[in-house]
Amino acid sequence: MAQQYLLASDFDQTLSFNDSGVVLAELIGITNFHDRVKGLSQINLVQQGAELSYLILHDPEFRRVRQAQLVETGKRIRLKHNVQQFAKALENLADGYNFSFYVISAAPQEIIQSALEGIVPPENIFGTRFHYAENGEVAAIIRASAGWGKITVLEEIRATLGISHDHIIYMGDGSSDLPVMMHVNSYDGLTIAVSEAEFITRVAKRTVLSDNAMSVLVPVMEDVLRWDSAKIRRTFASHGLMLREWGKSRTDQLLIQESAQESAEPIPVETQAVPPPAIAQGA
């Protein structure tokens, strides 16, 4: 009987290069999106990741956003390389294993479904859902999959699939993913950071830096399937890809001083850490 795994992913800057809010703001002619998000973050008014949904509901300029514009925003999102190939690879990655791929994000659901059309089934995408008024504007937020809300969604999916906690894999890029990563770690699941954002690399069990979505398969192959590097390279080659660079180094900055003396200069210490593979198309 095949082992069942749930692989859940964030969307913005995990499967894509850019932020949904930035793309939507450019579409409707708003230039200071980051300033508005920063203002909300400083007063801790909304959960991290849900700033765009809050702006759409409450900001006078964003209130003119309509559903069709969210769909158009999704079409303008730049996905990371080989996202579709990544989703297909999960379908038959290894004999005796079954990986169910879901996307859980605070971004509006219409944006994610539009961006991933033909790649991820709509029913496997859980974004922020809106209720629309008769005039087409957003009247209310039905549910926001942000911060701690991601845990609720993840647990609902897990229960539906009948998968044990230690067979959950979660990948994300930022601070809004910290609660769900800590939750997955507490049950011995696998967490993968795809950025060097503050705090997230300390929480995630693995970190992979690449502009290619297929790179996330490396920790899955190593930590779940227990494959060696030679088999991993052969598998990538079978998909027409090659691991051109696969570095495993990191420099930790340490400050060491005598208890009664002034601070010393940081001393770099080389340690072993997680690889940031560069993936190239095969010839």
Secondary structure: elements and pairs:
Elements: E1 3-9, H1 20-28, H2 33-42, H3 51-58, H4 67-76, H5 83-91, E2 97-108, H6 109-115, E3 125-132, E4 138-143, H7 149-161, E5 168-172, H8 178-186, E6 190-193, H9 200-203, E7 206-207, H10 217-223, H11 229-238, E8 241-245, E9 249-254, E10 267-272, E11 278-281
Helix pairs in contact: 1-4, 4-6
Written description of the protein model:
- Helix 1 packs across helix 4 (67-76).
- It is built from eleven helices and eleven strands.
- A hairpin with a 5-residue loop joins strand 3 (125-132) and strand 4.
- The protein has helices at 20-28, 33-42, 51-58, 67-76, 83-91, 109-115, 149-161, 178-186, 200-203, 217-223, 229-238, and strands spanning 3-9, 97-108, 125-132, 138-143, 168-172, 190-193, 206-207, 241-245, 249-254, 267-272, 278-281.
- The chain has one domain: HAD superfamily/HAD-like (Rossmann fold), CATH 3.40.50.1000.
- Helix content is 34%, strand content 23%.
